[in-house]
DNA sequence: TAGTCGAACTAGAACGATCTAGATGAACAT
DNA sequence: ATGTTCATCTAGATCGTTCTAGTTCGACTA
């Protein structure tokens, strides 16, 4: 068949249009300094040859790469939502996103190095697992924005969701429905699990209620396990670490003939795809991925364009009330 | 605080070590041609300075970039599984993966161009939506491998899963359990929906059974809708387009008091995370993401390293039998 | 002793863009 | 006629690598 052909360069276009390379560069970038007539001629030639600028050369030469490095994990569906939104926000601000995934045999450190190597002007790391030291190290050469985690030291920016407020909303909602026996199934070792657990404890105590934490994890199976434990001594409401855990909890309840929300109310966290399903209709705390992504991109761009000192942006989540929460059942209002 | 510092270059390392740039380049690449003693000296200097090669410059200069471009969609969890596996396979073969996502306002064409611009030596596109013409156009400059779609013309490679075989396995399994009234809820306009639908038709006819297709789609809600339709005239078994659709179908059955697998058997497709959940235990056709990814990467590398003509690899899926399929209920074996 | 060889190393030209500084020439003022 | 200005265009340096074609020098051969 046809053999692979070399891609055209600036030089090729310049020759075809009968001008210098520099002028072609000017036209392709849309920079001022070219007569309209020649501009057209050059664009025509470029189009005929199917010319596209080689980003390696472009990025190498220009000090500004206009590239934002984004590291995410393939294992987290929520990250995909953020990636999606980040693309939109970045291109609105005139930046490109370059991705690097944390995958099975590919640690976060590797993902970050890759981003740096291609010339990213800033790093956005979703739920970084790196230590504060390592993050600070990278922050010496490029602005670093931590997304979904805020205990990242002085050197790096953070954009996170206010877990304290999110949990408070959940508790508040339940209390206003008359619940007092409210349990929290935590996220085990997952990122933000501790934050939410402590927020729950504080909030319960603040209201004169006794905190009651059951160990869990970020997956459906973890929720299942916790649900089975709870069946022995049923609370009137459960606040799960996330939606997937909530799903597991609900499944285990359903299997035991416990009905939701008649017998027990359940609240999830993330307002994910699952929560919205018509047969789930899970009341959930929404962190709003698009908003978080926009804030992270905004922060990164600000830092690139001059803002000196890192700061932390905290977005307040909101509660999406659906069908898994209702008034507390009667005769169960003891402490 | 400390201001952003320029990253060290080959030149810096060369000066620090008291050798030429070329020598440092040799050492950093692990190429032969440097005495062990100087090699150590250079590595030491590089380490002290925190030197990392700038991949833009490296890729620009070397004809071989050893880069595989991978385009995926943020909306498909299954793609994430493939990305994960592709990383592992690529690095085993000495290649790097560069990602580009198809996201909300970011069409596939854009994702592909980005990959080309950074110098990918081959393109792996997961479930391409581009026309055969456009794919062929790109294939003129670089090998293109289509993953999960096989009607892509002569110019591009394809790695796909044998839908025909997968559906046949599903039908076979059900027939062996005594089912005759087997319905297929299709995937609507989704990729491979048509393949599976036609495979189902052919397979049913081949066995002297009458095909029965209900329109559906790739999501849970689509399954729900189809499930509701089916309740009026219940089949003994359902083959869903994918796991998510199967989940929706099962939910709608459960809500109507129809029990699975006692009254109806259900088979999904993808053997996703959901199918494996302990409270789902969905019998499902597995396409085996790691195997598909490995085949695609292998194909891409083969083409890069000399294989002239594109070909298509078809992997045979396998059926994972769990708890949603059982013997057909008695007295329901009419046509 | 001179010649050959190979290992270790280096200078300088790529790669394909952008950027700086300057050339060119038409239009206008003096 | 001369100088000034401005828009338009270009030559050549540059980004940080890799690659090509040497050079250098000690060891070995004849």
CATH architecture of the largest domain in chain A: 3-Layer(aba) Sandwich
**Domains counted in the coordinates of chain A: how many?**
3
Number of helices of chain A: 13
Main interface by residue count: A-B, 56 and 56 residues
Largest sheet of chain A: 6 strands, parallel
Overall SS class of chain A: alpha/beta
Question: Main attributes?
Answer:
homodimer, 335 residues, alpha/beta, 434 Repressor (Amino-terminal Domain), Rossmann fold, 6-stranded mixed sheet, 43% helix, DNA-binding
What does this structure look like?
In chain A, helix 5 (about 75-90) crosses helix 13, helix 8 crosses helix 9 and helix 10 packs across helix 11. The model of chain A has no long low-confidence stretch (mean pLDDT about 95). In chain A, strands 2-1-3-4-5-11 form a six-stranded parallel beta sheet, with helices on both faces. Chain A has a six-stranded mixed beta sheet with strand order 7-6-8-9-10-12, with helices on both faces. Chain A is elongated and about 90 Å long. Chain A has 13 helices and twelve strands. Chain A has helices spanning about 10-15, 20-30, 35-50, 55-60, 75-90, 110-115, 130-140, 165-175, 195-205, 220-230, 245-255, 275, 290-305, and strands spanning about 65-75, 95-100, 120-125, 145, 155-160, 180-185, 215, 235-240, 265-270, 285, 310-315, 320. Chain A folds into three domains: about 10-55, Orthogonal Bundle (434 Repressor (Amino-terminal Domain)), CATH 1.10.260.40; about 65-160 and about 290-315, Rossmann fold (3-Layer(aba) Sandwich), CATH 3.40.50; about 165-290, Response regulator (Rossmann fold). The longest helix of chain A is centred in the N-terminal third of the chain and has 16 residues, at about 75-90. The first copy, chain A, is of the alpha/beta class and about 325 residues long. Chains A and B meet through helix 4, helix 5, strand 2, helix 6 and helix 10 of A and helix 4, helix 5, strand 2, helix 6 and helix 10 of B. The structure holds a DNA duplex (30 and 30 nucleotides).
């Amino acid at each position: 068949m046809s053999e692979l052909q070399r891609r055209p360069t600036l030089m090729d276009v310049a020759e075809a249009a009968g001008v210098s390379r520099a002028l072609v560069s000017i036209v392709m970038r849309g920079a001022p300094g070219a007569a309209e007539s020649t501009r057209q001629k050059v664009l025509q030639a470029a189009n005929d040859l199917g010319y596209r600028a080689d980003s390696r050369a472009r990025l190498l030469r220009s000090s500004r790469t206009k590239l934002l490095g984004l590291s995410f994990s393939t294992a987290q569906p929520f990250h995909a939502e953020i990636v999606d939104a980040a693309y939109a926000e970045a291109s609105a601000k005139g930046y490109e996103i370059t991705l690097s995934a944390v995958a099975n045999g590919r640690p976060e450190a590797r993902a970050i190095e890759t981003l740096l190597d291609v010339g990213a002007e800033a790093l956005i790391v979703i739920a970084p697992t790196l230590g504060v030291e390592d993050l600070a190290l990278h922050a010496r050469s490029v602005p670093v924005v931590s997304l979904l985690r805020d205990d990242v030291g002085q050197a790096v920016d953070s954009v996170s969701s206010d877990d304290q407020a999110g949990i408070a909303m959940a508790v508040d909602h339940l209390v206003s429905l008359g619940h007092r026996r409210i349990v929290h199934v935590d996220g085990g070792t997952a990122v933000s699990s501790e934050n939410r657990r402590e927020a729950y404890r504080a909030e319960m105590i603040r209201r004169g209620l006794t905190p009651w934490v059951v160990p869990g994890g970020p997956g459906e199976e973890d929720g299942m396990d916790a649900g089975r434990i709870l069946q022995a001594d049923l609370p009137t409401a459960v606040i799960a670490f996330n939606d997937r855990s909530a799903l597991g909890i609900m499944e285990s309840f359903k299997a035991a003939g416990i009905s939701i929300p008649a017998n027990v109310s359940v609240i999830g966290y993330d307002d994910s795809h699952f929560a919205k399903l018509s047969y789930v209709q899970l009341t959930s705390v929404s962190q709003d991925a698009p908003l978080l992504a926009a804030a992270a991109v905004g922060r990164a761009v600000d830092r690139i364009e001059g803002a000196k000192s890192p700061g932390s942006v905290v977005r307040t989540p909101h509660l999406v009330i659906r069908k898994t929460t209702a008034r507390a059942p009667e005769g169960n209002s003891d402490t």
